[in-house]
């Protein structure tokens, strides 16, 4: 998938470990080098292997599928990550579908029911197709930074990771776990053991609460993060969003960054710090006029709603300026979203 692969893998590992001896690739060792290295770790006592496949060029998923020969394939979503390399969303969908390229009648494909490409992904696919999504669960409600509560097969449970993106990843995990014979009670227990990975929806609590979601970013995950942050309730302090450049978007980059800048600058957050050349160009492209004021040599953009600061590149000098600015404006109880590509 374009996003959510590692989170889905980690959730699924927690679930299936309730019943099986599980091995998975560590971190995001999911490339033409990382995946084969991970496969070498399989031992006789392992019953289930969960392996993430990633790509940043055409043909890579087909190569990885030929190495792994998966019995079960899961697609999380079709987004716009790496669109600068593959050229279009259609091409991304075609590449992702290659996870099923070695399938026969005994294999099982899990496809998100809400994805616009669901029919294309299932078309002429050998084996069994299972669509997963919110139709599987009931009584869904956000717990803010504490995660999402819902009921599955009549049993209330909680995913302790915040945001809709993580919840959709959880639904993929539940669908696969169900097909592997886990009961709803076992699924509930497995979910209770899920913890955030470094840089992925990681909530760091203290005098200031930080949502550290900076391992990677693409237009889909960035938009989801900003929406979640804006809708976040029950916070005592102000909301401060720090957004960095999204990478590997090619000719789509300017429009993608303009869309995110427009979204966050029309949101209910109090401060926005934008870091990087792409974010800077997006501000200029939207004709957001500077108000002539400056703090620490950084332009403050005139905008109804949040006070917006732009740092025109990711150099150490600009990062230092952002740090100094944060030290001035942060107050006890504030909540900070950090979202970027590394």
Topology:
Layout: H1 5-16, E1 22-24, H2 34-39, E2 48-50, H3 60-68, E3 72-74, H4 83-86, H5 89-97, E4 108-112, H6 118-122, E5 128-132, E6 138-142, E7 148-152, E8 155-159, H7 164-179, H8 184-192, E9 202-204, E10 209-213, H9 219-231, E11 239-244, H10 253-265, E12 271-275, H11 277-285, E13 290-295, E14 298-301, E15 307-311, H12 316-329, E16 335-339
Parallel strand pairs: 1-2, 3-4, 4-5, 10-16, 11-12, 11-16, 12-15
Antiparallel strand pairs: 6-7, 7-8, 9-10, 13-14, 14-15
Helix pairs in contact: 1-7, 1-8, 9-10, 10-11
What does this structure look like?
This protein has 342 residues and is an alpha/beta fold. It contains twelve helices and 16 strands. An eight-stranded mixed sheet has the order 9-10-16-11-12-15-14-13, with helices on both faces. Helix 1 crosses helix 8 and helix 9 runs parallel beside helix 10. The relative contact order is 0.12.
> What average pLDDT do the residues reach?
89
Helix content: 25-40%
Q: How much of the polypeptide forms β-strand, as a percent range?
A: 15-25%
* Distance separating the two termini: 19 Å
Silhouette? globular
> What's the gyration radius in Å?
21 Å
Number of strands: 16
Give the SSE order as H and E letters.
HEHEHEHHEHEEEEHHEEHEHEHEEEHE
Total helical segments: 12
Biggest sheet overview: 8 strands, mixed
Strand arrangement in the largest pleated sheet: 9-10-16-11-12-15-14-13
Which structural class is indicated by helix and strand composition? alpha/beta
- Uncertain segments are 289-293
């Amino acid at each position: 998938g374009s996003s959510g692969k590692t989170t889905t893998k980690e959730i699924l590992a927690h679930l299936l470990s309730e019943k099986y001896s599980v091995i998975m690739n560590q971190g995001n060792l999911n490339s033409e080098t990382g995946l084969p290295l991970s496969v070498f770790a399989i031992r006789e006592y392992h019953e289930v292997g969960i392996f993430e496949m990633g790509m940043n060029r055409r043909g890579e998923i087909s190569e990885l599928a030929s190495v792994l020969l998966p019995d079960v394939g899961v697609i999380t979503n079709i987004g716009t990550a790496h669109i600068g390399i593959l050229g279009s969303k259609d091409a991304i969908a075609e590449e992702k579908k290659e996870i099923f390229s070695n399938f026969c009648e005994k294999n099982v494909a899990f496809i998100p029911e809400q994805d616009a490409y669901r029919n294309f992904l299932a078309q002429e696919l050998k084996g069994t197709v299972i669509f997963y999504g919110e139709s599987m669960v009931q009584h869904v409600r956000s717990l803010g930074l504490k995660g999402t509560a819902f009921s599955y097969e009549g049993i209330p449970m909680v995913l302790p990771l915040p945001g809709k993106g993580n919840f959709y990843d959880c639904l993929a995990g539940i669908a696969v776990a169900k097909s592997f014979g886990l009961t709803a009670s076992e699924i509930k227990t497995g979910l209770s053991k899920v913890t955030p990975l470094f840089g992925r929806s990681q909530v760091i609590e203290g005098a200031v609460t930080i949502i550290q979601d900076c391992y990677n970013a693409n237009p889909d995950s960035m938009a989801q993060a900003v929406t979640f942050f804006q809708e976040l309730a029950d916070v005592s302090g102000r909301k401060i969003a720090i957004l960095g450049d999204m990478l590997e978007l090619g000719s789509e980059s300017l429009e993608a960054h303009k869309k995110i800048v427009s979204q966050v600058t029309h949101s209910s957050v109090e401060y926005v710090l934008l870091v990087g050349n792409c974010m800077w160009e997006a501000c200029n492209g939207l004709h957001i006029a500077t108000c002539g004021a400056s703090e620490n040599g950084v332009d403050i953009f005139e905008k109804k709603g949040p006070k917006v600061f732009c740092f025109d590149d990711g150099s150490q000098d600009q990062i230092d300026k952002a740090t100094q600015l944060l030290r001035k404006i942060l107050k006890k109880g504030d909540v900070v979203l950090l979202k970027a590509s590394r």
